[in-house]
Design goal:
The complex is a heteropentamer of chains A (193), B (443), C (333), D (194) and E (319). Chain A is an all-alpha fold and 193 residues long. Chain A is 68% helix and 2% strand. Chain A contains eight helices and two strands. Chain A has a two-stranded antiparallel ribbon with strand order 1-2. In chain A, helix 4 packs across helix 5 and helix 4 crosses helix 6. The relative contact order of chain A is 0.20. In chain E, helix 2 crosses helix 3 and helix 2 runs antiparallel to helix 4. The chains are: A mainly alpha (193), B alpha/beta (443), C mainly alpha (333), D alpha+beta (194), E alpha+beta (319). Chains in contact: A-C, A-D, A-E, B-C, B-E, C-D, C-E, D-E.
Chain lengths: 193, 443, 333, 194, 319
């Protein structure tokens, strides 16, 4: 696998959300607007890259049987760091995403990449993988959030371009499912073609 | 309210075009082709060779097992070959081909039309003679009759039901038989009652044959123990299980035989054949066949010899119409579509139905809209849509657990489906596979 | 022989029912309701019905042709029914754009996404309606007052539905008897002289449709009867216990979407069970949920939600509820 | 694959211990480091909310905050008096209501000294987006109808129930909850004025 | 170091140690002895789960491999010799080479060679049609053309040629898993050795009728004339029931039999093009004459097939 593929496969071919269906809880929960989706995606990317680095560094030191608890502790550490930092320096964003930040710990994208990739590859590859996967995740969340924001509030990244209300259902959970469903269908179509 | 069975059923247009045509004797053919497998069960073993001379009623193939039947020559003449010939199954089967030469009958056959009412034989003798005469169920299933008459140990027959329902549209062979051979039918019924050792017999007739009901009812006063039961017109009332349910309101258990509820069912045609075999010593080599169809010139009922080519039957009714789309051996609901009319009629051929081009094609298959009509018309209380799906997916375990083997293949589901789905086609496929699985399990 | 014979497995006799004939049977049954809604809601009703039906047809055509790449079968009537039922489930002053969105959701999301007619798990018209209800709660809950042959459309005078009045009043602690004076009497409600969605108002028209469909054997009685019966029994029990807090069963049956739902929505072939026993369970379930939502839920009306919830149970019902089979051997008898 | 550490008891214990130890240490220090900025951020937010609802002030209302027991047992209302040059110009009251569509809503209501409502801001709510969330100033101007009204002659009940407050269209319940919270604050304010 | 930092370190570390202890004993208690080679073999297999090996899935095959004393009876047709070599390597055994195989259609009765005698109007399913009758031509052995083999193929290695009404195997994609062989109710499809340079010679007919009957119903049927049997020097051709069969283990690809066959029933596939060469291509002149595409019944069947395929796809999607 070339370095470039490691980086890019996570964006379309093995997109965590559209293809692997990982981490759907934050995907559905946080994407009420494009900015929320983007922020959540970037926070996840940060944790993903960092945990991939650490996991790939310590991979041969950790016995198999305690692999998962060790990875979880590593991931949880980074998540808490992100949470505290955000709370301290980006309080407005934290207000919106606060509920979902701790959920990054159990986001299967991160544990999945740690387990499936970082624990078998070197540090540099793991960084690329984490970056690619994370950007793919952020991309998916931004698109999802953007579509929901356009349909649900008649705005994009907070810029309103429509008078009055949008279709409320898209701001609510059912709308997230509907949009995600169609995005997955489109992504299948693209990937299969 | 007339009696009928309780669940499901359909009422297709009756189209009994030949109901008023009296039975005609069909002219002797020049050649007959007699398949050695005209019944359910093992094919018979030919006992004649090429160039043998045979008489009418002479046995030419012997029963080869318990569920099998003798086959008799229907004509006199010379066996010209024993070869595989296409029969109504669409496959080539072994057949004895006889060149007709005159019409010389076996001496033992009593050709006097005089009615003989006294029954001189004992139960065992009757059953044996029915077997010797090669009588099979003439309603279409062609199950060897002596097997049905031999009540298994530990069971007793309580009632004999004679099936005069003829629920298939178009067909009128049984109807005419009941009208024209009423007395013989009654005596035949008495013989069957004696063979089964029962004191009660009911002849079930659908209400669209009022004349037959009246005729037989008036005759029944002369025959003790026989009653006539008029039934509401509902397909598939001619099915054994449905008829028993309609007449005596008992349900044959799943996988069981009618004898499990004390009933034995015989067709009116069979009862008539039994009369002829016992009282006149005449084996089964001819039967009544309806030739009908909307575009047929002269729809008619013929008394024809087994082995006669369908071409000759159709010729007698004015030839194959221009707009023929489909030729069916039997009725429109359960008959078999033929890929050529150059095949012989057999003991089971109750009718030849010619369907014009316009009505011969199925509609375009559409998605199931889950209208549940197939479920509501299934007389066996099955779910045809489901059976079709599971056998199409080759999930034969499920096909079996959904009781595909209960299906009587009446075709009500396919008939009623608004999406033209080939329900029965796939159910039949599933049944065949499940049957093979069950057999291999037993082996 | 000049022509080749056709060969096929039996049966060789094909019934007259086609998807088209069944769907047109339903459409004919919808005529009385259409007439009554035009009478009471005038121009608004006309605009809503036409928009809904035409956009349903157009979406069906476009999606079948360009996305599913199949031959569109517009005239089988199913899209017309969906469009008509969607129109019957919305107020008569709904803006055209919202109706079009509703039709797109009904046809595109609820029906075609699952593969078209026969494959959708939920009733398309109801999905469209609930989608609109959640998306546009304001527009979807302002009901024009019925005025005979009125010609206003968007600026019609609005008022609450009897159910809405009842729910609001009970919340404020007013007794039922007081509230009853504010709403039309039973006879008025039966002929449709009350606020509400287009098709919901006239019980008599819906019942006419029911009689026609039963006569033509388009549907069976099981679902409507079990559903309405359950509602009558349950609301009756509550009414007998405390007539001050709970309205009487006749009120519950005549108001809101109970009749429309029972006759035209719950009986949708695709989304209802296959066996009669299953249909009875299905109808009872809808009745139960409707009563629970109406009496204890946040929304004044619950028929749509009840039907959609029970739609989700249909596959389960189909698996576990089997028809009584011929010759079933009863074990341990 | 490089030689992997065996899953012996010693190794497992050691690995997990080391990982947890390092994590804990990191976390501890990050916590220490962010503790202050977080507190500041929180305070800023509160002050901003207070600033929004009362006229300009010079004191630190957070330091002068006092709690009053509310009508619901166990719950308190927080009073933030605002002084300009030691003159009481208004009081911001953090109040709540349980009548909302989902969970409890929190408002900051600012009263002038005479009881007139100066301004209101929503601190926390989870009302239906597009409906109930119109109580938030960011979403609609609905809540401005309270500004400048004195509840002494302005009935804090939605008009549907016979009061003076126009409810949000199709969101009577949320409007009721909002009004209820304001009413609670007003009653506490009047009671404690004496 | 403040109190809270120490507190954090103590609790988190304690939890870590506790978890390690619990995990250690849990791992000991629930330790399952499973041959790790099963996993290794499963990984080596193509995981097509096609059943071509005779086992329900790849894992079952892997288990069987581990259990078996030698690999003589076990073969993964999809992976072929390469995969079996890997498997043998994992087990430390000798790999047994097997000749690569490919599916061939032993019927050439396209519309032009085999006149129709009736129209089939039932369910588009070979087994249904085969249970009903002998097919819509006079030949009761020939291909029914309803494409059950194509549906059965897991590897998209087959398609129906609408011009001939016969299925075609795409050799490059065929893995010889045998799904089509099992699916065909008429037993027309056979797995044959791929042969040197993909060269194969086989009798493309299974008609056991007498010569005259066979010839009347299909002009490219094997009529059992024994010419090929006589000309073969390697004893590779046997005639039974008026039907020739070429044993691919004995055939040396000399192509003498092709020259003598009076009905062109023997096919050769030996071009570097690596495709099964159908007789249609061989006789381009005949092809021009044949007008088959505008037969309405064919169009109907193709259409029905398409529809039912769609339905199937949908019902699969639903699950």
């Amino acid at each position: 696998m070339s370095k470039l593929t490691i980086l890019t496969k996570g964006i379309i071919k093995e997109n965590a959300v559209f293809v692997l269906f990982l981490g759907l809880c934050p995907t559905l929960g946080t994407t009420t607007s494009a900015i929320n989706g983007l922020a959540m995606g970037l926070a996840t990317t940060f944790v993903l890259v960092m945990s991939n680095i650490v996991v790939s560094m310590v991979k041969s030191l950790i016995p198999d049987k305690v692999r998962i608890p060790a990875f979880i502790v590593i991931i949880a550490t980074f998540v808490t760091v992100v949470e505290l930092t955000m709370q301290a320096f980006l309080p407005d964003l934290f207000e919106v995403l606060g509920l979902f930040i701790p959920l990054i710990v159990v986001n299967c994208v991160i544990l999945g990449r740690a387990e499936a990739f970082a624990s078998k590859n070197n540090v540099f590859d793991s960084v690329l993988d984490g970056l690619g996967m994370g950007l793919g995740f952020a991309f998916a969340l931004t698109v999802l959030g953007g579509i929901r924001e356009i349909l649900g509030s008649g705005a994009l990244f907070g810029f309103s371009f429509m008078e009055g209300d949008g279709m409320l259902i898209f701001v609510l959970a059912p709308g997230a499912f509907i949009v995600l469903g169609y995005l997955i269908a489109i992504s299948n179509k693209i990937n299969k073609a | 309210m007339l009696k009928t069975f309780s669940r499901g059923g359909v009422h297709p247009p009756e189209n009994k075009l030949s109901a008023v045509q009296t039975i005609e004797q069909l002219a002797l053919p020049k050649m007959v082709t007699i398949p050695i497998s005209q019944h359910i069960g093992a094919p018979s073993t030919p006992i004649v060779k090429k160039n043998d001379l045979v008489k009418v009623g002479q046995i030419i193939a012997k029963s080869s097992g318990f569920v099998s039947a003798n086959i008799h020559s229907s004509v006199s003449g010379k066996v010209i070959k024993i070869d595989s010939v296409m029969d109504s199954s669409g496959y080539k089967k072994q057949s004895i081909i006889i060149q007709v030469d005159g019409d010389e009958w076996e001496e033992s056959i009593n050709r006097d039309p005089q009615l003989i009412k006294e029954i001189n034989l004992s139960s065992e003798e009757i059953i044996k003679k029915v077997g010797d005469a090669g009588i099979v169920g003439l309603g279409g299933a062609t199950f060897p009759s002596q097997v049905k008459l031999s009540v298994p140990k530990g069971m007793t027959a309580e009632i004999l039901i004679i099936n005069g329902v003829e629920c298939e549209p178009y067909l009128t062979a049984d109807h005419r038989l009941m009208l024209e051979k009423g007395d013989e039918l009654m005596v035949g019924t008495k013989i069957l009652m004696k063979a089964l050792n029962v004191s009660k017999a009911v002849i079930g007739i659908e209400n669209n044959k009022r004349d037959a009901i009246e005729h037989l009812t008036s005759l029944s006063s002369n025959y003790e123990g026989i009653t006539i039961q008029a039934l509401k017109v509902q397909y598939p009332q001619g099915g054994e299980k449905q008829l028993i349910k309609a007449v005596i309101n008992r349900e044959v258990p799943s996988g069981g035989l009618p004898i499990a509820v004390g009933a034995v069912v015989h067709n009116v045609g069979t009862a008539y054949a039994v009369y002829e075999a016992i009282q006149k010593n005449k084996p089964l080599f001819e039967r009544i066949v309806t030739v009908t169809g909307k575009s047929v010139k002269n729809p008619a009922n013929y008394l024809a010899r087994v082995g006669t080519s369908l071409t000759e039957l159709i010729e007698a009714s004015g030839g194959l119409p221009e707009d023929t789309g489909k030729v069916i051996s039997g009725g429109p609901m359960m008959g078999k579509a033929l890929n050529t009319i150059d095949i012989p009629m057999t003991k089971g051929t109750s009718g030849v139905l010619i369907i014009p081009v316009g009505e011969s094609r199925r509609g375009v298959v559409q998605d199931c809209i889950r209208c549940a009509k197939c479920v509501s018309v299934c007389p066996m209380g099955l779910e045809p849509y489901l059976l079709m799906t599971v056998s199409e997916q080759q999930n034969y375990e499920r096909t079996e657990s959904e009781r595909a083997m209960d299906c009587i293949e009446c075709g009500s589901c396919s008939y009623t489906c608004p999406s033209n789905r080939p329900l029965l086609d796939y159910i039949r496929l599933g049944k065949a596979e499940v049957g093979a699985i069950i057999r291999s399990r037993k082996a | 022989m000049s022509k080749l014979l056709t060969v096929s497995p039996s049966p060789h006799n094909y019934g007259k029912d086609t998807i088209k004939s069944l769907m047109y049977g339903v459409l004919i049954a919808l005529i009385p309701t259409t007439v009554v809604s035009l009478y009471f809601f005038g121009l608004g009703a006309l605009i809503v019905i036409l928009t809904s039906v035409f956009s349903a047809l157009i979406f069906e055509y476009l999606i079948t042709k360009y996305i599913l790449k199949k031959e569109p079968s517009l005239l089988d009537g199913s899209a017309i029914i969906t469009g008509l039922l969607l129109a019957f489930n919305v107020p008569s002053n709904l803006p055209i754009i919202i109706i079009i969105i509703g039709a797109l959701v009904a046809i595109g999301v609820a029906k075609m996404s699952f593969g078209g007619l026969g494959n959708n798990p939920f009733n398309p018209a109801l999905v469209g309606r609930v989608f609109l209800l959640i998306s546009f709660p304001v527009q979807m809950t302002s009901w024009p007052v019925p005025v005979q042959s009125r010609m206003q459309y968007l600026d019609a005078v609005t008022g609450a539905t009897p159910l809405g009045l009842m729910k609001e009043g009970l919340r404020n602690g007013e007794p039922v008897s007081d509230l009853m004076t504010q709403i039309p009497n039973n006879m008025q409600m039966f002929i449709g002289n009350m606020g509400g969605s287009l098709g919901e108002v006239a019980g008599i028209a819906i019942l006419l449709g029911l009689v026609w469909m039963l006569y033509k054997k388009v549907i069976t009685w099981h679902i409507p009867v079990s559903m309405i019966g359950t509602i009558i029994i349950l609301t009756g029990i509550f009414w007998l216990i405390n007539p001050d807090k709970y309205a009487d069963p006749v009120f519950h049956v005549l108001t809101g979407g109970v009749l429309l739902g029972a006759v035209f929505m719950a009986t949708d072939y695709v989304t209802s069970p296959m066996t009669t026993k299953g249909m009875l369970i299905f109808g009872t379930g809808i009745g139960l949920l409707t009563v629970v939502i109406r009496l204890f839920g946040a929304y004044p009306e619950g028929v749509s939600f009840a039907i959609l919830i029970m739609n989700a149970f249909v596959p389960l019902i189909n698996i576990y509820v089997k028809p009584k089979r011929f010759g079933e051997v009863i074990k341990n008898g | 694959m490089a030689s992997k550490t065996e899953s012996t008891f010693r190794n497992m214990l050691l690995a997990l211990f080391v990982v947890s130890f390092i994590s804990a240490t990191t976390l501890g220090y990050v916590y220490e480091f962010t503790k202050e900025p977080i507190a500041i951020a929180k305070l800023k937010k509160k002050i901003a909310a207070i600033k929004k609802v009362v006229p300009e002030f010079t004191n630190d209302p957070n330091a002068d905050m006092y709690k009053i027991a509310s009508d619901i047992k166990g719950d308190t209302l927080e009073f933030y008096p605002a002084y300009k040059d030691s003159e009481l110009v208004g009081t911001a009251i953090k109040t709540f209501s349980d009548l909302g569509f989902t969970k409890r809503i929190y408002l900051m209501v600012g009263f002038l000294a005479d009881g007139t409502i100066h301004n209101i801001s929503v601190l926390e709510h989870a009302e239906t987006p597009g409906l109930g969330d119109k109580m938030d100033k960011k979403k609609s101007k609905w809540s401005e109808q309270f500004n400048g009204k004195n509840p002494a002659n302005y009935k804090l009940i939605v008009s549907k129930d016979g009061g003076d407050v126009d409810a949000i269209t199709a969101a009577t319940i949320s409007s009721r909850a909002y009004t209820d919270a304001v009413d609670r604050a007003y009653k506490a304010f009047i009671e404690n004025k004496k | 170091m403040s109190e809270i930092v120490i507190y954090t370190i103590v609790t988190v570390s304690a939890i870590g140690i506790l978890a390690a202890i619990i995990l250690y004993f849990a791992a000991k208690k629930f330790h399952v002895v499973e041959d790790p080679r099963i996993d290794d073999i499963e990984e080596a297999l193509p995981s097509a789960n096609c059943g071509g090996c005779g086992y329900p899935g790849c894992r079952n095959f892997a288990e069987a491999c581990v259990k078996a004393e030698n690999l003589a009876d076990l073969f993964c047709p999809v992976g072929g010799n390469d995969v079996m070599k890997d498997v043998a390597g994992i087990l430390g055994q000798e790999a047994i080479e097997k000749a690569a195989q490919v599916a061939v259609i032993r019927c050439s009765g396209s519309f032009e060679y085999r006149p129709r005698t009736n129209n089939y109007d039932g369910a588009v399913n070979c087994t249904v049609a085969a249970n009903l009758y002998s097919g819509d031509t006079g030949c009761q052995y020939g291909c029914l053309g309803l494409g059950e083999c194509v549906d059965a193929c897991t590897f998209d290695a087959m398609y129906m040629d609408e011009k001939t009404g016969l299925p075609v195997v795409i050799q490059d994609q065929c893995t010889a898993c045998g799904d089509c062989v099992r699916a065909c109710p008429k037993d027309i499809i056979e797995l044959r050795n791929q042969g040197k340079k993909d060269r194969r010679i086989f009798v493309s007919c299974i008609n056991e009728d007498k010569g005259g009957v066979a010839k009347k119903n299909c002009s490219v049927a094997c009529i059992g004339c024994t010419k090929c049997e006589k000309v073969c020097n390697y004893d590779a051709i046997k005639i039974e029931n008026f039907l020739a069969y070429i044993d691919f283990t004995k055939c040396v690809l000399c192509r003498k039999c092709i020259a003598v066959c009076p009905t062109d029933a023997i096919h050769e596939t030996n071009f570097p093009l690596r495709r099964i060469k159908s007789p249609v291509e061989k006789k381009t002149v005949v092809k021009e004459k044949a007008v088959v595409t505008d037969n309405p019944d064919l169009v109907n069947i193709a259409k029905k097939k398409q529809e039912s395929n769609d339905n199937e796809a949908e019902s699969k999607d639903k699950e």
